[in-house]
Here is the input.
Amino acid sequence: MFRKETVPVIQAHDYIKQFPHCDARILHSPKECEFCDKHPEWQALRAAWGIAFTGWTPEGTELPCPADHARGDKHKLWGGNVARKENA
Here is the structure.
C-alpha cells in the first residue's frame, strides 16, 4: 500500500547551479524581475502547480508562495531577494 523505503536525497545544487535569488523559494511573476525571467520554465511550473508568485496573494485554490508563507514580508529585508528590473 505505502512504500517504507528511504527517499533518496537529491541535492538541488547538483542540478541547479544558481537560483534567481538568495532564498530559493522566491520566484517573481513574469516581467516583474529580470533574474526570475531567466527561468521561464520555473515560472510556468509554478503557475501550472497553482502556487502564487512571491508577493502575490493566492486566489481560490492557489497555494501561497513558499517564501511568503514561511517568512511573510521579512524576506524583502535582504536586497538580494527583491525583484529587480533591467535598467532600474
User: Anything to note?
Assistant: The mean pLDDT is 88. The CA atoms of residues 30 and 40 lie 7 Å apart. DSSP finds three helices and no strands in the chain. Helices lie at 12-15, 40-48, 66-71.
